[in-house]
Amino acid sequence: MDFEPKILGIACNWCTYTGADLAGTTRLQYPQNVRVVRVMCSSRINPSFIFRALQLGADGVLVGGCHPGDCHYNTGNLYARRRLATTKKILEFAGIEPGRFRVEWISASEGNRFAEVVEEFTTQVKNLGPQTKLKIQE
Amino acid sequence: MTDFKKIEENLKKEAKRLLESGEVTVVLAYGKGFDEKHPMPFAAKSVADVDNIVFNEYCNYNMARYLVRYPQGTKIAIAVKAADSRAVIQLIQEEKIKKENLVLLGIPVIGMKNPKTDEVIDSKTTCGMHNPVLYDVLLGEEVHGQKIVSPYDVLAEYEAMDKDARWQFWKDQFDKCIRCYACRKACPMCYCDPCFIDQNKPKWADKAPQSPGNIMYHLTRFHHLAGRCIDCGECSRACPVDIPLYLFHKKVAKECEEMFNQVSGMSIEDKPVLVNFRVEDSDKILE
Amino acid sequence: MSRIGVFVCHCGLNIAKTVRVSELAEFAATLPDVVVARDYKFMCSTPGQEMIQRDIKEYKLDRVIVTACSPLMHEKTFRKVIENAGLNQYLLTIVNIREQLSWVTHDIEEGTAKAKALLNGAVYRARLLAPLTSRVIDVNPDVLVVGGGIAGIQAALELANTGTKVYLVEKNSTIGGHMAQFDKTFPTLDCSACILTPKMDAVLQHKNIQMLTYSEVTEVKGYVGNFDITIKQKARYVDHNKCNACLACTEKCPGKGVSEWDEGLVKRKAIYIPFPQAVPQKPVIDRESCTYFIKGKCKLCQKVCEQKAIDFEQQETFSTVKVGAVIVATGYDLMDTKPLVQYGYGQYPGVYHSLEVERLFNSAGPTGGKVTLRDGKEPQSIALLHCIGSRDKNYCEHCSRVCCMYSLKFAHLFKEKTSADVYQFYIDMRAAGKGYEEFYNRLIEEDVKFIRGKGARVTDSEEEPGRLIVEAEDTLTSKFLRVPVDMVVLCPAIVPRADSKDLARLFNLSTDKQGFFMERHPKLAPLATMTEGVFIAGVCQSPKDIPDTVAQAYGAAAEALTIVVKDKMELDATTAMVNPASCCGCQNCVRVCPYSAPSFNVDKRVSEINEALCKGCGLCASVCPTSAIIARHFTNEQVLAEMEGLMEF
Amino acid sequence: MLKKTAIEKISQLAAVLMEKGTLLAPVKEVAGHNFAEINDPQKVDLNFYNTIISPKGAFFPPKEDFIKYKIGKTITEAEQIKVDSKPVFLFGVRPCDVKSFSIMDIHFNAAGIIDPYWSQRRKATTIFGYAYDLNQPVDAADFYNSLGIYAADPEGSDIFMVKKDKDLLLKGITPKGEELLAQLNTLVDAGKDDEKYYEETLKKGKEYKTRFLCIDQDVIAKKLEAVFNNNDFWTKVSSACLSCGACTFVCPNCYCFDICDDTIFGKGTRRRVWDACMFTDFTLEASGHNPRTQVYQRLRQKINHKYSYHVKKYGVISCVGCGRCTRSCPVNIDIYSIVEEALKL
Amino acid sequence: MSDNNPYIPMPVQIAKITNEVDTNDIKTFRFTFLNKEDEEKFKYTPGQFGELSIYGKGESPIGIASSPTELGYVEFTVQRAGTIVPGLVTAALHDLDEGAQIGLRGPLGNSWPIEFLENKNIVVVGGGFAFTTLRSLINYMLYKDNRKRFGEITVVYGARNPGLLLYKDELAEWEKRDDIKTIITVDKGNETWKGREGFVPAVCKDTAPSPKDAVAVICGPPIMIKFTLPVFFELGFSKENILTSLEMRMKCGIGKCGRCNVGSQYVCKDGPVFSLAELDQLPRDF
């Protein structure tokens, strides 16, 4: 059987989550590997959420927020950008494949972008194979 | 080479003067330990204490660690080497201390050593600067003309590693961790009480000294110190099982410097990079 | 521990066709703490709601999970449902298995498996939910309307008639908007001015409306019920309190500026009112064309003004208004067609865009209502080119919706005012509106030539200098046509105002791909936005005709009224708070908060959050190294638990 | 019975022991040596002074799982985790560390409640004591002499080992040790000169001097009780202390632990993990009250516990002078110096 | 090892939950043992405590509120801990329903010294929530066969307001009895409160129990203890004859984990009951 990755998505309420809804409303089809947690703003995402997600066995983590400048809370995603970029560097130096973590700006109107990103990211994570490094072995 | 004896004399002289005049109530410096190779961090509170002050190549301690322990408003003199002065600057940036309550006794120095191995540690486990960035009194001649060594040079070997090899390297390192928390306790920037890892709600990780909890602790700590670590190397020196934490901190510092174009602890005007942003930050940093 | 009820909605077949809903409910029943799990055809229907309420009582549920459509759709509905059953509304969790699952897959295996994972995550999260108390705030009874076009005017009047105080902000020196530029309106061909100017006057006269023309919103603070809005009054250089609208100044003024009102077809004075029926009837000075401002002397206007109303020293001023709700009705721009060089706009004098033509028909327009070309001649043949930039993947994907109809109106007016041949180059004729199809049929009768093919190119005629050739493929005959005409009218795409991005930022509005403001829900909340208390009406939301615009204005007024009519309102309780026992005093929260909600208590050495200012984004919680900040409803534990649940299966 | 083997053949001995059970022996790590479960006999390395972390982990591991549980729909299934009863060979333990076990025994068996984990592991284990190499200089931090322990003390070991040049001499001390020694066929019988060397080493061990302070346990216990409220003293000696747990985690006699439940996906383990009285939250009560918020209070607790409370409760100092805490302390706090100073007060 | 492993909780079932106070944050849980032999093993004396254990949350040491004379069950009165961040175990326990299973370890710690108390007049002073093991003691002493072993029994029990008094029904019953003098007081009453108003120390002073052949058993919030002790000293009670139960963070409950160490004592094993004279021997480190 093909490896079907488990991907954790964390989406901001105002843009990416709404965009994901739009993808549904417009009946776009995309792989169902991403399981989305809704938060109010991408800036809510504590870097430890990412580490924890990988420990919980996520093969990839996809974060979605409003485009810089369009944050519902003005500047939240600008902080998020810095904090998540740093998270990414840390994962990379720890030896975790950087391709397992991705941050995308997807607006409420970009349903197709959401579908595209999910499609791309799923393929990418699929190619990387199961994430075993951080996953907690029971 | 640095004249350690001379600095020790000056340190004593200044400490005496400051305590005598009442300008400060504490002088944070270095004191005698159980032998010469093992000096200790020392808080001189009276003129009589000054005799106990020493300075030699093993006085690696970053005395900035102790600043937050004193009540706000305490007048403190503190001996600072290059990285230590950066820690002070960073703490001022973070409004944990106020410059006006401090007298910085700057120590320009080359040739600090690791007492376990007797190796010179400059720029290897530390930031590689020789002169304090900020000081009120300088206790020795500024060091000039030294070959400039990037503190990030030591990273080359690890950056060149294959990611799986690097993972194995860090996993082995973190597996050694016994969770004594000497790293965070020695760190001048780790002033959180309680530390996130000690919490039950939310419980970020297991308390047991085993892989998942250890990794969560260290990775999150690296993130908490991103853009704040001033590369004094104290975490690694404090570690009883010699985990080279400094490497990771240096790597994060290097990345932060590249991404945000700001070096931690260099100016009291700066704002810590991760609680700051620029509209023109590039999305490239996320790639 | 908890007593969770799980309610799985089929949504007819919307969900049930790609998720085995009964299996999902059975699965839910096996999860710890789930005491009842059911599936039902339409959970949001009355029987569905009653089922939930019955179960809450019967099974003493303390948490409810509704597995249905997006929370953005029905979270509020179900919150009310459980609240009416005596449960705190925040003890609800919605699992989105429609928009983000059943609609985006065809595979029922995949759909069912993912639905289980999502539901499990919700159960993990639900266990940790805490009842929250909504904040009750005082509501300011006033409303701000941004934009003085027909939408803004209508909304302002409606509100004002209910006794609500309205501030109407208009960027131009007169209200009226695009509609005031038109001569006739389709399909009834009634006179635009006749129906609009009385409304403009009513605004002016209304004691509950404070009109702020020549003004712009520059800052928005606060939140629903309590907005503090800073408005910039641009310098008019005319003291409107003194001016008695004698307009002597405008006659004497030697300055010449481009008339924006007449779409640049003619010049106007430097001190001017845009058009005779302008409201207010008081002039402003355009710095750019004023001789005094250019050369440093003139002041003729000042000399003739008996009221001493001219003030060259006037500065822009800022004032703040406090309102409880806002209606944004900022209208549209026409797409700039110059970049579409194939149509020759700006290159050939015979090429016009639609608003220019509106002015040509208008008796108060540059030609006094006569249709003449720029050289004064009457055109003998006229081509109307539809869909310029609209329905075009390269520019605007959307249909601008009114072009077909106003082109018909143009054709009719051309026929009425000239003897020209009129050609319509269209892709599809869209006439879905009351009386529209009939209007179309009427025009077919009026000997207008309809060519089903998009105008591809406009060139000048080699054979007949001065004339233009419109090239197109007639898709009905598959023939390539070259039609010589004297006048080409482009129907450019309707696009958002150039400054709509800034406005979106000010009010935290989302915009769609094109830049039109996004409604909260396309069907169920077409006038509300993601920002509580801010509503949209008219073309700023999407292209539409006057009847729809006016209808929206009424709707938006009603929406705004539902807020300001009450003295008090509930705000989301999802704010952040500090657990002082864990606060290490790093002040990161204070540094990052966009709303200055956290502050540092110097004596206690801990941060404190002013919940009235908090909007619940959670940024402070994520920068808090000691997890001392609890972002209610999105606490660290709740998010971590949800993640754990999502990853279990 | 005295046996011997060449030190370079130690891996053969290791292999035999691994067949019989679990072998815990010093292995070289980057920072120094530590006891570890041996999977590869070549890894056993006796070329060490003393390990960084004490061998207490053999009986009191950093984490000890008690119960595995699975949170179910109606009830939580729980299953006790049994201690592996396979024989364990703890190889190469310095005399001071051997002594620490007997001190820990008192606590873990005290007051009629026997800690089953400690006692079962103790029973299953054969201890190979190992004399310090008398030809090497003593480490400046050590002070086991002050606690009446000598460099070549076989007491408490089942088998005691002495290094003689390139050979390792092994002597059965207890019947358990004797019996095992007889089974170890890679060993050869030692000669007369070996016997002599062994006996001499035990004697010379007394001359191998660490730091020495005359510590009468009752005197120090009383003294510390008396200076309990001398905040100046405690503040001074703790002014450098970082309040980390390094000293307690490397200590052979620190036994504080925490019990925690670690759960993931509804399945979890209740386990005990090492804890340290030096941590801020060690005594933090649910009410928020914490009797020991200050560093000096915690350092005082640690020292008093070892040198005063433990004496009063169990009649013995809970310290063997191995010097680990001093060596591992990031700021070189020296318990010996503190005791010395306290005695001067 | 399973039989004697002191770290393994015995399974118990919640037989009954009683909400004690208006604020709903103190409940009394009655547990029955799932294994009959566990009940035999759980032989306790008033003043002892047990570790309530919920897998995934942890354990919490709670004083036993029932009397050993009540057979077939054991009761604990538990306060939901933590205001901003709730305590793990107590919050979980409060969310449980009757019939739920949890774990129990014990009995742990020493107890009220019954032999020492015999033939003496007993003054029981309690404040607020810290009345649980006192209730155990009182019910033990009032038990028909036991009553004669003790002299006069005086109970002074106070709470901030009437709604916060525990065991209201029992209090009423005690008030009716003539072999026990029961004085209930609240700091501040309400419309329906007909009883006494006043702080515990003041009420003790008014009551003025004689120190002759008497022992005072005092449990309450620190502030109450602080002001009550001087009253008893003044009345002439010696430190040996004033007993209290010490609070200290505990974990293992069997004197192994070192957490509750104060001086030479492990509060969980050697305590929690101490006389003031014994407490004086301990360093002030609690």
Key terms:
B: 287 residues, alpha/beta, 2 domains, five-stranded mixed sheet, 8% strand, globular, C: 649 residues, Rossmann fold, FAD/NAD(P)-binding domain, 5 domains, five-stranded parallel sheet, 29% helix, 24% strand
Task: Itemize the secondary structure elements and their pairings.
The complex is a heteropentamer of chains A (138), B (287), C (649), D (345) and E (286).
Chain A: E1 7-12, H1 16-25, E2 34-39, H2 47-55, E3 60-65, H3 76-93, E4 101-105, H4 111-128
Chain B: H1 4-21, E1 26-31, E2 40-44, E3 76-80, H2 82-93, E4 102-106, E5 137-138, H3 156-159, H4 163-176, H5 182-186, H6 211-224, H7 234-238, H8 245-260
Parallel strand pairs in B: 1-3, 3-4, 4-5
Antiparallel strand pairs in B: 1-2
Chain E: E1 10-19, E2 26-33, H1 36-41, E3 49-54, E4 58-63, E5 74-79, H2 88-94, E6 101-108, H3 114-117, E7 121-127, H4 132-142, E8 153-159, H5 168-176, E9 181-186, E10 196-197, H6 200-207, E11 214-219, H7 222-235, E12 242-245, E13 261-262, E14 265-266, H8 267-270, E15 273-275, H9 276-281
Parallel strand pairs in E: 7-8, 7-11, 8-9, 9-10, 11-12
Antiparallel strand pairs in E: 1-2, 1-6, 2-5, 3-4, 3-6, 12-15, 13-14
Summarize the structure.
By secondary structure, chain C is an alpha/beta fold. Helix content of chain C is 29%, strand content 24%.
Mean pLDDT across all residues of chain D, rounded?
A: 93
Number of domains of chain D: 2
Q: So what's the CATH class of the largest domain in chain E? A: Alpha Beta
Oligomerization status of the protein chains: heteropentamer
Mind summarizing the main beta sheet of chain E?
Answer: 7 strands, mixed
Structure commentary:
The complex is a heteropentamer of chains A (138), B (287), C (649), D (345) and E (286). Helices cover 40% and strands 17% of the residues of chain A. Chain A has 138 residues and is α/β, with parallel strands linked by helices. Chain A has one domain (7-128): 3-Layer(aba) Sandwich (Rossmann fold), CATH 3.40.50. Chain A has a four-stranded parallel β-sheet, sandwiched between helices. Chain A is globular. Chain B is globular, with a radius of gyration of 19 Å. The mean pLDDT of chain B is 93. Chain C folds into five domains: 4-134, Rossmann fold (3-Layer(aba) Sandwich), CATH 3.40.50; 143-214 and 324-331 and 497-564, FAD/NAD(P)-binding domain (3-Layer(bba) Sandwich); 248-304, no CATH class; 334-494, FAD/NAD(P)-binding domain (3-Layer(bba) Sandwich), CATH 3.50.50.60; 575-631, Alpha-Beta Plaits. Chain C has 18 helices and 34 strands. Chain C is globular. The model of chain C has no long low-confidence stretch (mean pLDDT 94). Chain E is of the alpha/beta class and 286 residues long. Chain E folds into two domains: 10-108, Elongation Factor Tu (Ef-tu), domain 3; 114-245, Rossmann fold. Chain E has a seven-stranded mixed β-sheet with strand order 10-9-8-7-11-12-15, sandwiched between helices. The model of chain E has no long low-confidence stretch (mean pLDDT 92). Chains in contact: A-B, A-C, A-D, B-C, B-D, C-D, C-E, D-E. At the A-C interface, helix 1, strand 2, helix 2 and helix 3 of A face helix 3, helix 4, helix 5, helix 17 and helix 18 of C.
